[in-house]
Amino acid sequence: MGNIIACMINRADLLEEAVRAEQDALGTPTPGVHDGWGVGFYNAGEVLHKKHPQATDTKLEWSELLHGVRSHVAIAHVRDASVGTRRADNNHPFRMRHWLFAHAGVVGGFTAIQERLLASMPDFLRRNIRGDTDSEHLFHAFLSFLHDAGQLDAIDVSDQAVLAALRGAIALVDSLVSEVGAPKSDLNLVLTNGRQLYALRRGSPMVLVERDRLSMPDGDSSPPPRASDPVRYVLIGNSVIEPHAGYRAIADGRLIAVDRDVRITEHSL
Question: Domains of the chain, with CATH numbers?
Answer without folding.
Answer: 2-268 (3.60.20.10)
